[in-house]
Amino acid sequence: MLKAIILTIIFCLTIISVFSARPVRAESSVVVSLKVGGDLEDTTLSFSGMTSPKAVVTVTRDGAVIGTTIADDGGRFDFTLTAQTHGIKEYKLYATDRGNLSTSTIGYTINLTENANTSLGNIFLPPTITLDKTKVSQDGTVKFSGISYPSSTITLFFSPHPFSKTAIANNTGYWEYSLEAKDLDAAEYQVYAISAYQSTQSLGSSPFTLKIESATVTTSLLNLKPIEELLRLPEAVALFDPNGDGKIELPELFDVASAWFKEFSKSFGGTCDLNNDGRCDITDFSILMYYIQSE
């Protein structure tokens, strides 16, 4: 019997994340191995890699599920599909975490050799991600969370803005980040995340649309008063109201100005001091002019 020949090839695969915010081209350190010869009489395909602990990893081909496995407590998975047909095939993988959130789907195009085992190793599935709101005012916050490989670094991207934030997954893989919306301009963003652990990095998660709106400014927030109240004459100004009707109109300007300058010319002008700073000057006269109504 011929001794089995094992060929191990390590190279960079071009992988497309099916549900990424935009097509993601990545150099991933996926290890592809081919075992031929010996007593192999089946065409098989093996997968191994990292995801969140106890996640259900699903493999599909041509839209149909052809295999599943459950990651261990540390987030590692390893399984083999038997009785595969040789030739160029496309397989897709995704994981569903313990919170029932699914990762984005990653596709691999592989040329299977007949009566040989092809292995894809060092696969790093993307993190899951959710957010507590998809629309937020700039004076508010939004919380992102999900599950990934334990102790991995999660980086959040806010496309098209060159802006990112990071979080660290705990030993169960859970991560979260609270963003203060004021850090971003009012606009619409595609938010996605990647995971990184040591020298291995995942592709992008499924994206979410986040809309950040300008903070609503109301008169109550700024303690503004209605225009009628603003134009109501203060007691000191009312002294210069010629006919006592509670307002000073443009035709009364000459009489009002004359009355103020008459008080100003007195040795001890008191009624012309409208801001109560102990003196009569141009500031007081400006206050008086402020209350002149053109209509």
Structure at a glance:
Helix content is 12%, strand content 42%.
Kindly describe this structure.
With 295 residues, the protein is mainly beta. The chain folds into 3 domains: 5-124, Immunoglobulin-like, CATH 2.60.40; 130-213, Immunoglobulins (Immunoglobulin-like), CATH 2.60.40; 225-293, no CATH class. Helix content is 12%, strand content 42%. It is built from 5 helices and 23 strands. The chain has helices at 219-222, 227-231, 235-238, 253-264, 282-290, and strands at residues 5-10, 13-14, 16-17, 27-28, 31-36, 44-50, 56-61, 64-70, 76-81, 87-96, 106-112, 116-124, 130-131, 135-137, 141-147, 153-159, 164-168, 174-180, 187-197, 200-201, 208-213, 248-249, 292-293. The strands form 6 sheets. Strands 14, 16, 17, 19, 20 and 21 form a 6-stranded mixed β-sheet that branches. The chain has a 5-stranded mixed β-sheet with strand order 1-5-12-6-9, with no helix packed on it. Strands 3-11-10-7-8 form a 5-stranded antiparallel β-sheet, with no helix packed on it. A hairpin with a 4-residue loop joins strand 16 and strand 17 (164-168). The longest helix is centred in the C-terminal third of the chain and has 12 residues, at 253-264. It is rod-shaped, with a radius of gyration of 36 Å.
Question: What keyword list fits this structure?
Answer:
295 residues, disordered N terminus, Immunoglobulin-like, single chain, five-stranded mixed β-sheet, six-stranded mixed β-sheet, 5 helices
Radius of gyration from CA coordinates = 36 Å
- Quick one: CATH class of the largest domain? Mainly Beta
Which structural class matches the secondary elements?
mainly beta
Give the number of domains.
3
CATH architecture level-2 label of the largest domain: Sandwich
What is the first-to-last residue Cα distance?
109 Å
What is the helix content? Answer: 10-25%
Order of secondary-structure elements? EEEEEEEEEEEEEEEEEEEEEHHHEHHE
Q: Let me know the number of strands.
A: 23
Using the alpha-carbon principal axes, give the shape: rod-shaped
Strand content: 35-45%
Average predicted confidence as pLDDT = 81
In DSSP terms, counting alpha (H) and pi (I) runs of 4 or more, how many helices?
5
Largest sheet descriptor: 6 strands, mixed
What ranges have pLDDT less than 50 throughout 5 or more consecutive residues? 1-27
CATH fold descriptor of the largest domain = Immunoglobulin-like
InterPro entries: Big_6, Dockerin_dom_sf, EF-hand-dom_pair, EF_Hand_1_Ca_BS, EF_hand_dom, Ig-like_fold
Pfam families: Big_6 (PF17936)
Protein name: EF-hand domain-containing protein
GO molecular function, one term: calcium ion binding
